[in-house]
């Protein structure tokens, strides 16, 4: 939800020392990173009680929830069109020019514009909930309509809320931004779990109503976020200035900013939403085409879709979020080297990005795949062979999806937006062409196969062009990747051995507690093994610089 709100480089106000600015940046980064991590943890942990309280309808409920959220996430992207980042940039600029009143006026104007966009986007989602539900959920999708309508409430207020977040971002007051994000997630999870428990354990036991309340939690969480933002506005004294700004030195037109930002942001939004778009394609085609070749009921199809999509997404989205972070951190440096013509530094940075990505993502993906049974049991239930196989397929596929999230931003920031859009279009065409035959032939595996092939094509196109532009060293990059692959092999042996030993203690089908212990011990041992070998080979320092040395000292390796 916050992908379009990455921290900008707002510049420095007159009189600030470099040391003070550095401290402020480090403090802001700490707040943002901490809030983001806690939010991600909450976003994973809540599924354990939520799924359990849904009882025998856990898989159907998770699919219904995810289908609504896929549409919702796309509406959020469209309704903000990169405006929060633009507000942050303009606020920082006007404060640097010692024209804070212009910043206040800008925020007021943008609040009005974004409130209108929120009404339009929410209205479309609300009144089109019927057709959208049929599109993604099939003809028997009436239970998805209230889910869509509940999420439209969140779409209504998110654009204006994101403007205020952008304002604090522009002031580099990241604590307010981070606390609003954190409280949004905390309130959302509390509402979800409270409402689900009340309905499924104390009330009507209607799982569709419980899902609707779980998606309504997005709106309730945003109200909590709004409360935090207004508190910080009031506390800082900016509320009064926003309501009654004084005369400004400059002039600005919010609609012009909106127009310019949309022109710049649309390629990023479209290309960056590829995974979301592909999920919607999976939902709509699977639910509508499977009745052609099978006699599964609507609820059985929902359960099958949870096996290859919804249940896996809750876990892989954390990994994909880290991949996106790795890419976004390097974007400003890639832009700087490209503009200055520092081709050697640019090539080194691109190659380093690949090595760092593989160094993080490969062991994470392989480790999760090896621990499929205890992880699935911990979060959901003891998996069947079909559930296990689809889970492993989706987990391994996330490596490719994350790689896509890494390779498309450099091409867009290096003034090749049209080419990036063309590559995305080719990727989408391959997906659409393959989707129907894959589903008809391979059923639940079909969407995964179509996505894997299409993203493989897209990633190859992006990497070839990046090499053509930067001439990054394939030899050095592959050498670094080979090191990570070797370490992952060592880690895998340790994970398998520990899992086998613990299996003798907890049995072949351990419960949720036993699975949690196996996941923690086997996963933790494997992670430490990976870091230990990385330290011995000097890869920690190569990947993380001085922080790698600090990590070695903390872990005594």
Any key phrases for this structure?
557 residues, mainly alpha, globular, single chain
Q: What would you say this structure looks like, in words?
A:
The protein is mainly α and 557 residues long. It has helices at residues 18-45, 47-53, 58-80, 83-96, 100-127, 129-137, 145-170, 174-202, 207-236, 238-243, 254-272, 274-293, 298-340, 343-370, 372-379, 385-413, 417-442, 446-470, 474-506, 512-536, 539-544, 546-555. The longest helix has 43 residues, at 298-340. The protein is globular.
What order do the helices and strands come in, and which of them pair?
Elements: H1 18-45, H2 47-53, H3 58-80, H4 83-96, H5 100-127, H6 129-137, H7 145-170, H8 174-202, H9 207-236, H10 238-243, H11 254-272, H12 274-293, H13 298-340, H14 343-370, H15 372-379, H16 385-413, H17 417-442, H18 446-470, H19 474-506, H20 512-536, H21 539-544, H22 546-555
Helix content: over 70%
Task: Report the biggest beta sheet as strand number plus sense, adding barrel if it closes.
Answer: none
What share of the residues does DSSP label as strand, in percent?
under 5%
Q: State the end-to-end distance.
A: 38 Å
**Count of discrete alpha- or pi-helical segments spanning 4 or more residues:** 22
Order of helices and strands: HHHHHHHHHHHHHHHHHHHHHH
Choose one word for the global shape: globular
Evaluate the radius of gyration: 24 Å
- Residue runs with pLDDT of under 50 for 5 or more positions: 1-22
Average predicted confidence as pLDDT: 85
Number of E strands = 0
- Helix-strand category: mainly alpha
